[in-house]
């Protein structure tokens, strides 16, 4: 399996990671995050649907994450092990969304 390139955050503002569902909180064992990036193609309703259906986020959380993607250009949508985040990134690509992974806190 080839390694993915390291992602450099476009903003280091601490508020970017605040709206992730409670079951996806950072821990010492889960140092990786999946980031979904804004794109000019997908409708906001579709992005909300993906966050609800794939991640199981409640509608309110899915809408908050979608708004963050739309207004700030990106949102952290899941946290976990490297392997789990690789699966999530591939799933987002399967839905047609732009997604990357990076170490939490970077």
Automatic annotation (TrEMBL):
GO terms for molecular function: peptidase activity. It holds the Pfam family ClpS. The keyword Protease applies. This is ATP-dependent Clp protease adapter protein ClpS. Transmembrane segments: none annotated. Keywords: Hydrolase, Protease. Signal peptide: none annotated. NCBIfam families: PRK00033.1-1. One of its GO terms (biological process) is proteolysis. Residues 29-100 form the Adaptor protein ClpS core domain. InterPro entries: ClpS_core, Ribosomal_bL12_C/ClpS-like.
